[in-house]
Design brief:
Layout: H1 8-22, H2 33-48, H3 59-76, H4 84-94, H5 108-115, H6 123-133, H7 143-156
Length: 157
Amino acid sequence: METLTLSSVEIKDIADRFEALASKVPLRVITNDAEYDEAVRMLNALLDSPMYTEGGPLGPLVTMLGDLIADYDEKHFTLPDASPSEVLRELMNQRQLKQSDIPEIGSQGVVSEILNGKRELNTRQIATASHLFRVSPAAFFPRVEKSAKRMMKAARI
């Protein structure tokens, strides 16, 4: 692997830009509930932003912040292994909601397809559901996928 060389000007530019971004977005390992709450609020704000689209320029930032939240969740909250549709179903059951009661997520048909595993929740739906049910967006990411992500990251090292 070839070594990358950066000039002192480039390093200063990167440091300044990172410092500016990190002052707004908590891009660090989450160590306590206050930092967790801050990170979840920022993630929700980014997901709600009209500038956010799947595959857009904020995508990697949203993914990184979501991974930090998911890591904290995994260490501090015991969640049963559940698919995103099972999580949605449980949240609806807890609040005694029917498919037609959550049009923010999609039509009754779309919600039915999600609950029956025929359709995946997309990023907008996850953001909407996390706001609607006041849970972390990480609740909608299956634990199997998180483990696979970690394995893939480890393999790249």
